[in-house]
Each structure stands twice: as structure tokens, then as C-alpha cells.
Amino acid sequence: xxxxxxxxxxxxxxxxxxxxxxxxxxxxxxxxxxxxxxxxxxxxxxxxxxxxxxxxxxxxxxxxxxxxxxxxxxxxxxxxxxxxxxxxxxxxxxxxxxxxxxxxxxxxxxxxxxxxxxxxxxxxxxxxxxxxxxxxxxxxxxxxxxxxxxxxxxxxxxxxxxxxxxxxxxxxxxxxxxxxxxxxxxxxxxxxxxxxxxxxxxxxxxxxxxxxxxxxxxxxxxxxxxxxxx
Amino acid sequence: xxxxxxxxxxxxxxxxxxxxxxxxxxxxxxxxxxxxxxxxxxxxxxxxxxxxxxxxxxxxxxxxxxxxxxxxxxxxxxxxxxxxxxxxxxxxxxxxxxxxxxxxxxxxxxxxxxxxxxxxxxxxxxxxxxxxxxxxxxxxxxxxxxxxxxxxxxxxxxxxxxxxxxxxxxxxxxxxxxxxxxxxxxxxxxxxxxxxxxxxxxxxxxxxxxxxxxxxxxxxxxxxxxxxxxxxxxxxxxxxxxxxxxxxxxxxxxxxxxxxxxxxxxxxxxxxxxxxxxxxxxxxxxxxxxxxxxxxxxxxxxxxxxxxxxxxxxxxxxxxxxxxxxxxxxxxxxxxxxxxxxxxxxxx
Amino acid sequence: xxxxxxxxxxxxxxxxxxxxxxxxxxxxxxxxxxxxxxxxxxxxxxxxxxxxxxxxxxxxxxxxxxxxxxxxxxxxxxxxxxxxxxxxxxxxxxxxxxxxxxxxxxxxxxxxxxxxxxxxxxxxxxxxxxxxxxxxxxxxxxxxxxxxxxxxxxxxxxxxxxxxxxxxxxxxxxxxxxxxxxxxxxxxxxxxxxxxxxxxxxxxxxxxxxxxxxxxxxxxxxxxxxxxxxxxxxxxxxxxxxxxxxxxxxxxxxxxxxxxxxxxxxxxxxxxxxxxxxxxxxxxxxxxxxxxxxxxxxxxxxxxxxxxxxxxxxxxxxxxxxxxxxxxxxx
Lengths: 230, 348, 331
Known about the structure:
heterotrimer; B: CATH 2.40.50.100; 2 domains; 6-stranded mixed sheet; 28% helix; 36% strand; globular; C: D-Maltodextrin-Binding Protein, domain 2; 5-stranded mixed sheet; 15 helices; 11 strands
């Protein structure tokens, strides 16, 4: 096992040093697809999480429970369901989304929505309830007071976004089923790892895994730095 | 300035305030005195526009306050909470927050924040993270955060509780300064000594109702039934004092003599805070000058704290934690010793 | 501002995000279809795709044609399912019985046999069952006997793939029903791809049926020490065919390009790629071109074998399943 890993590490360095075009392409695509999916999902998930976190309405607990359950949806399940939807013979077939990076973006953004919503909701609830009163007594309007509460939970929001990005870039089921792992079009890091591993190219598989983890690590560090600046 | 008429506040089926009618005059320092749970906080919240009364009327300068103009009222009055609530960021961030809500130019915000921070003596810590401050420093921060707004009305909930001596001195000084500058102050406390020291007018609140109102001196002098009852629960005694070697020996009756670290002879009214009295099952040899032996006559459970009445000839109220009660296995009828320092004996 | 974000930083961060999004979006758009280029979705099996031959075919074909080839590599069953759902324009598989059903059900037309190789029965170097010199049929009978005696183990793909289909066919030829064999202790089902199945076989020091592409690769990389014990024979022949999706049942399918690509696979150039693939890496070719052989009858034995296994009603594609003008058939 150790030799396979060492071989893989050597392979990575070789690939990076030579600036292997395919590796660069696949890596950039993974980043682009999962990055866009994260941004997209954040657009609707953060407001939704805030609404649930701060809101007081009937069925709130139920809604929270639903999202908590959706957190555990297997990627293959979601991939399969969406595949059936996007398939030519499916309800959304006429959009011809199957085997495009767009399909993966849509699929991944759906996948990570429960993550963002749950995290944001929970971090809002963890904020001291008196913060809102404090904001009000210092002269804030109701809306502004809500924003202040959101501001206090900002680290939770950041965590939500990074956790969901990590999930998106490291998932296989959705990318495989909706993208098809087509060379030059929808091949991303995870699908390549699966392909090469199946082919018996274990060292290459390990190498790509290292690249994937390095990316995830780098992004997380960058976000951490950005967060501290605020 | 503010007038409450027939105000009641219910939370579910719990009545926090019952038919309160009072007036707050512009420019005065009003103290609301009362034990924990008497409704002081709720009253302050209503005065600050943070809560709406369940029934009754609130008038601010003659204008009726309802749901839509509550925000305006909140901009003219500010409440400093009992438990410090911090916003993330530095001391400066916290102080500047309220100013940023109003249309004030940046340089003014900076200047005013600096002034407020200096007023409470936190200049050195101005750029520290607020959460890194000590308890007393955080209280001062809350005060600065409130006073920087220049509100007409300042509401303080237990501003002097658990403060270190330095912070305590600063807070009292700031309150006086603000009031001299024209700010109306309403403060809520259960500390009888602070009440007397700071305020011009006193309200006694018990179980949601105002049971007494007047000037502190008057109230303490001829104690009404309610005042007396409150006083008793705060160990207020009258007695004859004589100085012996620089220490005041006060005979409060019932065969009890207590020692105090003040120099006054003759008729005195003294008080020792229940929190400052130590209870033990055996005589403790310590530097404390007051050691009295007596019997537990009553135990009152107030959630996290326990109040006990110990009869040592006169009935003293002492406060201990529930844990101590359980660990020591104290019961009514038991004989105990109560101890407190001479410096804990306050002159009223 | 303590509540949300300091305004300056918010703007900066938003700009960064917008920049990333734009770059990402641009990159993705760029890798989408180019104008004037049509796409052809070819559903194929992992055992064919994983050898890498299709990448070479793709490069050569796309260099000469304004067609973007999309290869979807999955198990045979799923490949056919894709095509039935209209998500592929043609299939390139190696399961003749399923292919004819595909056409009979009306989903496919214009089948063309492209290449062939052999499945092999592989096993431990010392061949404890002693099948090395037997015919495929004899070998299987012997394996059942030895298996039931507890001397050897057989590992099956068990995943409904082309190889698994072939294996099932073989067993039934010898008179055994795999659904009954599965219950016996010596017959193990991997439920996995060929690579994993080989590794399991290696672990058990057992026997299994494998395709040449995967085996040669794993063998060369030292992942298995198994040996080819029976490497040829009529029963073991593995035939790769291309079938276009029926434009009548699926008007959205890119039929024209499917035919063009099939013609390419059958052309001299395409056939040469198949013939030469793997020689430099493994020392022997992984595939054998089938078109010339069937046309000229240059190797009668093999031709007979192919016809026996891969022909229906005497042809690789009966007349009723041919569609449109095509140069595919001269018979």
C-alpha cells in the first residue's frame, strides 16, 4: 500500500512539473464546475437558511428536519433521479442538458443546498438571542437587527460555504451520471480517479487524489484568510 | 418625559408587571429597587421601547408609543443589559455600531467613539477583541456603547453588579457625569446601597407592583412595611455605634453587636449584603471581625441561589449557592455560624 | 460596520466571486460544443473504453470530421439502456444476443461487426484443475467437477456486463444454469468490473473468464500473476459491434453521423487502429479487425466462429434492420 501511495506522489510531482495539459484541464474544470455550483446554491440557500433560522412560523421545525434528512442523500441517488429527469425521454429532456458541465453544476448545487441551509440555520440559532435585543436598543430597525444577527453568525455561513464546496468537488455520483465523464467535456477529478482506478492505474488514481485534496486544502485556507480579514 | 399608565405585562400566564403607573421626569436619576424577579428588567424594557405592554399606555413626551413609533423611541432611549452582550469585533467596533445606524459622518463616528471609550477608561484596550476583556471591562464597554449615542434616556439594568472596584468607581462616575449633562437615567438594582448613593428618587418594585416611591433618605428613615420587609431581606438594621480602637461597634439589638470599618458614632443605619455573609457549620477562625451564632429559620429557593434567614438574635439574610446547601446538608432549625468582614458592613 | 461586512471588503469579495464565476463560466462554455460542430453520443462498455483504443479512434476521427465524439463508458446493460432512452446516438458493445434484441425491439439499425478478440479462462500458474490442454467446453466441465470437490474456486463478474453475459452463455452451452450454480459454494460472484474481478481471482488463486484488454494491462502492471490457460476457441470469441439508434423510433438521434462513424470504424483507417492498438505497450494487439476477414473470408475458421456467434439470420445485420443509404454492407 505504501509503495502505491509513494508512487502516486511521485507521479503527481511529475505531472505538475511537466504542466500536463490534461491534468490542468481536468483540475480547472473541477474547480469551475464545483465553484459555480457552490456560488449558485449559496444564492438561494443562504437566504433560505436565514429565513428559517430567524423566522417564527408554523412548520419551522418540520422544515428544519426535512433539510437535515436531505443532508444524507447519496450522490448516486440524486444522480440517478436527475439523470432520469434530464434524459431525452425524461421531462426535462428537451433542454438537452445531459452530458454537459451545466448538468453537473445543477446537480451539485441541488446536492449541496441542504448543507448550506442546515449550517446557516443552525449558526443563526446559536447566536445569543439577546444580540437582537441589543441591536434594537442601540437603534436598529427590525431588518437591521436581523442583519446584525446574521453578521454575528458569519463564521457559520463561511463554514457552510466551504463545507458545501468540499462536498461538491469531491462527489462522484452526480458528476458521473449527469456528466458521463466525457473526455474534454465533462471529465472532472473525481470521475477521472474512478476511471483510472478501474483501469488498474492505481498510482495515477492516487496522484489525482492528492491533487484533489491539495485543491480542497488550498481553497479552505484561502477562505479562512478571507474570513479573518472581515 | 415618560409616563406609564396602568401598564401590565404578561408573558404567557406569568404576570411580570401589574398595573404600573409612574412618571419619569426629564433629567432625574430614578432607581427601581427590588429583589430578583420583581419585574425590574421588564419595566426597563418597556421604558426602552423593547417590549410593548400587554395593557396600559406609554407616553413619551406626551406622544403615545405604539408598534409603529417604537423604533423612534428606541433611538431616543437605550438600555444596558444586566448580562453583557458583545458584538463580534473590537471594543471600537462595538462602540461605533450604534452610531453607524444613524446618519453620522465617519469622522464624527470616530471622534465620538474615542470620547466614549475614554470616558469609561478603556482607551488602552480600544483595539482589543471585545471578548478578550474582563467582566468589569465588558460592563464598561456596554456603558460606552450606550452613552456614545447621546440618548436622552439611559436605562441601566443592574449596572453595578459583580464589578471590580475600579470598574465600579468608573461606572458610578460616568452615571453622575451623564446626568449632570442632562441625560435622564433610570437604573434597576437590588443593591440597596447603590440605590441610596446614586439616585434622587426611588421606586420599590415587588412582584410586578410598585409598593413604595419617594426619596431614598425618606424611605430609609421611616420605613413603611414594604420598605422594611425589603430592608430586612437586605440586612438593614438600625443601632447605636461606638468607636473602639478605630472600629465601630454597633449594637443592633437582640444582644447582637456587629463590627464595622467606618468611623461614626451614635444612631446609625447599617446594612450588609446577603452575598457578603459566609455560612459555616463550625466556628471559622478568620480575619473577619463578625462571627455570630444562630439558627436557620427559613430557607428560600430562588432557582440558582438560596436565601436563608438565620436568627442570631436578629434575623440576618444570607445568600448561598444551591450546591453549598446540598453539600452542607443545611436544614431549618440547624445551628450555624455566620461570618462577615467589618468592611462589609455598610453605612446607610 | 459590525453587522454584515465592512463595505469595502464586501465589494472586494463580491468582485472576486464575480471574477471567479465569470472565469469558470467562460471556461465551461468554451469547452462546450463549438459552432458548426455536431456531437455524436456513443454509448460503450467499460471493457472496451478502458483499453484506451477509443481515445485513439476519437482523435483520428475528429481530426477529419466536424463531429465531436462523446463516449459514455458504462456497463453493457446501462449502455443499451442509455440508447433506448434516447440519450445515445449509437452503441458500441460486445453482447450479440442483447444486440439482436435491441434491434428486434426496434431501437437499433445498421449493425456492423467491427472487431473481435477472445475471452480467456485464466487461473493460477500451476493450474490445479488441469484445464490447460482442454477445449473450452471440456475445461468448464472439469472446473465444475473440481469446484464441487472443493479443490478450486470460480469467480464470476456477476454484473450483467458483456463479459458476464458471455460467461452465462458458456455455462449454458455446457449444460449448466448459472442461477443454480450461484448457490454452490465454489462459484463466487464479484458483482464488479473486470479489474476488480481479476484481483479477487488473484486473491483466491481461482479461475475466471476475462477479456484480453483488461487482463493484459493488469498482468503487465504486475497486479495479477494469473496465466491464460485457454485463450482461443469458438466458444470464447468476443465480437465488438456498432449499432446506430433507430431514427424512426428516435427522431432526435443523430443518425447521419452515427452511420458516418460506423463507416469509419469499418474503414481501412479505423480497422488499422484496432489492429495495431496495444502492440507497443503489451507486445501483442488487443483487437483483431473483423471487416476484411468477413468480406474476403481470408481466415475461414475464425470467420465461421464469428458467424456462428455474431450473425443472425445469416447476416451481421438482417435486411429488415437496415436503414437508409449506406456503404456498410456488400453482402
